[in-house]
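yo

u said u wanted the structure for the complex thing, so here. seqs first:
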Amino acid sequence: MSKRSTRSEVAKLARVSVATVSYVVNNGPQKVSPETRQRVLDAVEELRYRPDAIARSLKTGHSHIVGVIVPTVASPGMAMMANIIQETLASNDYFAIIASTRERQDLEEKMVDLMVSQSVDGLIVCPVGIQHYQQLEDLADNNIPLVFMDRHIPDFPADRVMTDNVAVTKQAVRYLVKQGCRKMVCISFSRTASSAIDRFEGCLQGLQTDDGTVAEIKNLIVEDPTGSLAEAAFFSFIESYGLPDGIVCTTQEIGISVLKALRSQKIAYPMQKFIIFDADWAEMMMPPLPMISQNFFEIGRKTVQLLIERMKDSSNPFQFVHIEANLNV
Amino acid sequence: MSKRSTRSEVAKLARVSVATVSYVVNNGPQKVSPETRQRVLDAVEELRYRPDAIARSLKTGHSHIVGVIVPTVASPGMAMMANIIQETLASNDYFAIIASTRERQDLEEKMVDLMVSQSVDGLIVCPVGIQHYQQLEDLADNNIPLVFMDRHIPDFPADRVMTDNVAVTKQAVRYLVKQGCRKMVCISFSRTASSAIDRFEGCLQGLQTDDGTVAEIKNLIVEDPTGSLAEAAFFSFIESYGLPDGIVCTTQEIGISVLKALRSQKIAYPMQKFIIFDADWAEMMMPPLPMISQNFFEIGRKTVQLLIERMKDSSNPFQFVHIEANLNV
DNA sequence: CTGAAAGCGCTTACAG
DNA sequence: CTGAAAGCGCTTACAG
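structre next:
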């Protein structure tokens, strides 16, 4: 087992200086004669030399690594975003390092710090909460651009890309009201995430109609990322409030739990009044369930695009991009 | 906007040498008196100093970064593995950098090279094919341990963790044969991936019964990671061969496509003879579909465990770990 | 207990 | 066109 070869070994074999090796490997910044270049390339090939990106980063100040901090990558939506982020970054010569917070604020703060230590060139964050915190403020001092994805921290100086959660849930509740629902529930996955907050806000806005219809919607918050506590929470909810006549589930995990809960207890419930976020399988059900379809691909793609633009030029005004979601009924 | 502070600024503020700052920050290797230590800690706090992991890596030779190369992270199974990999690594003070190959051999080779450039301390690969190739051989020269996850390259010197694909598909086909199926199809997602090859091999083994039953199974290969070509491929298949009386779909994406194809053409098919890999939603269908449930969590967890062991001590014999999958009928 | 100094593998302004 | 040299921010064996 040999050791990885370095630039100086290549230089020796090619009988040139280490500087010349760099000029060849990097195509600049100096010209190299064709013969010399060929000698270097031969030596690179023979030694199977690969430049050390770490040493280069130290010198240039660019790691070509982007940090991605999300609650989890296991959920289908996050997985889609992580995938497109990764592919888009790769085609721009960047790597993604991914960290998950499991919806814990302390881990998020720690991860931001670690990303700074790793000298990431940029950071994508899907934050647990909506409060400003010091580690995020420090990013500016370190010249690390930040883009919020899927969720954001209001009034923080950064770009952000996410679903227009208020608009789509407003539309969803209007639809339910039109279907005759008067006593609804919106089941949320977090009490701190901006997306969860916005979704209930949208639900409330959806109640307001022109024709004086009186309807209400409660917010049931299940603080459990996996959705496994949703079943018990739902039962306890209907014990106090009775069975709602309209349901909005803000994640598909919660939707599945509630669906199973209804079935296991053989509770009759009209499926066309059951709206689940991101449930791609909803159309395969009999009958098909209404669902809200977010465009995760586009959220991820646009996030990377904004980040790359900002890594090149940090002077532009911050952008707040909404990606449209669809209510499929 | 200030610049990130360095160790020497901390040293100056604390009126000590840079070495002493290191001793404090790293808790060693030299003792530091309590008063000096406190001065340093105060300076670190005041300057909000974060050690530069890149500079440290260059010096120590350890990046504390693990590379993960997979076909995609968008599929639910890969997402689960990526998530547990990332969490397990984080709790051992490692970061994961993730790259996807989109089932392309050339991208896989390029990504291995790039991971070497990034000086990863270890590499997890879910390979596109089963052929040995040079970039993978080079890993040993660079002292980078390798673990195959979910798929492997036979006879390559490395640890590997995956589902026992032969065993579970054998069991699945035996079940189908017992249900009376005689003319089956196994729809695969790749002609090169070890997992796809093993799954069909298992199907063939499942045909052999003690009681002389004669049954056959064809292999339909849909080389399209997203499964969107599966519908057309399936129609063209049944045109030549007729409708099979038993179906094994080796990914849930393919399963969904075929299910939709059957429905769109209103083709009657007995759902209890339709087995889909990884289709967690199968039990929610009416009637529930049989499915094969892989333990992605355990595959990811065990992969990281083996990698970490090998990063500590590369002398152990290589391990080939099978994680059990379940046939739920 | 503390510090001066070498060196990790690169890049690049500068001199020739 | 080519090379000698400084320096990126760290670690650590060694001397005091």
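Chain A touches chain B through 54 residues (CB under 8 Å). Residues 16-20, 23, 30-33, 36, 55, 57-61 of chain A lie near DNA strand D (CB under 10 Å from a C1').
cya
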